Model the fold of this input.
Amino acid sequence: MKKKLIFLLTLISVFIIPLNLEAAPRVSAHAAILMDSKTGEIIFSKNAEELRQPASTTKILTALLTIERCNDFERVVTISNNCAATGEASINLRTGEHITIGELLHGALLKSGNDACVALAEAIAPSEEEFVGLMNMKAKSLGALNSNFCNTNGLPCKNHLTTAYDLAVIARYAMKNQVFSEIVKKKNYTLHWSDSPRVKSLKNTNKLLWLYPYTTGVKTGTTDKAGKCLVASGKNEEREMIVVVLNSPDRYGDAQRMLEYGLKGEYLCKETMLLNSN
Done:
C-alpha cells in the first residue's frame, strides 16, 4: 500500500503540477494569436481565422507599403482637401501645408492619424483607392489570404476585414523592416512641419510599451465595431514573438500574458512533457 501511495504521489508531481504551471495563457479577446517571429510557428490561437474588422491595426500595412515604395523619407508632401477632411483620430493636417513622408509615418503609427494615412497613400499612388489596391496585393503576397482592406486607416467599413492570423503574418514581416521597427518602438516623438514653426508632441497609443519591458511594438486599434484591438511584439535574448488580440476587453493584459508565455518558452516545456508522457 505504501509503495502504491508513493507511486501515485510521484505521478502527481511529474505530470499534474507542471501542467498547471505551463497552462496556456488566459485570453479574453474574441480572437487572438501568438506567433514566433523568427519561425512563423503558431504557439497559441483563439478564433485566429475568424474574419473581423481590424480598426487602426490596418495602419501597419499602410506604413509598410509606404516604406517599401518610398526612396526618400524627407520628400515633402502637400496636404490635399481630401486628406484634411479625414475624420476621427488625426494629427490635424491642414489643406495646403507641407510635411515629409517620414513625419507622416510617425503620425500614422504613433498617434494613429487617419489623415496621415490618406496623405501617405496620395504620396505613393495616384489616389487613395489605388493605394488600397496595392495594400490588398501586398497582403496576399505575404500570405494574408483572407484579408480585404477598403481604406488605409481602418475607419469602419462593412467589407474591411482581416483575421488575427493575417495580421500576425503582416506584422511579422513588417517588424523585419528596420525603418518600421524603429518607429513603432518609440514612446514619444515631436512632429515637425516643413513650412511652419508648428510642432506636435506625439505619445504612442500602445501603452504596452510602458507596461511590459520586453515590448518592441506595434499598433493599437479601436472602433465600436472592432472593439479594442492590439498587435504587439516582444523580444528577449532568446526569442521574438508577435501577438494579435481583436475585440478584447483587456487588450494589454491579454497581450502581456501571451508574450510572457512565448518569451519564457513555457510552451516548449509543455510540449516536452507531452512527448515524454507518450
Remarks:
- The domain at 26-277 is CATH 3.40.710.10 (Beta-lactamase).
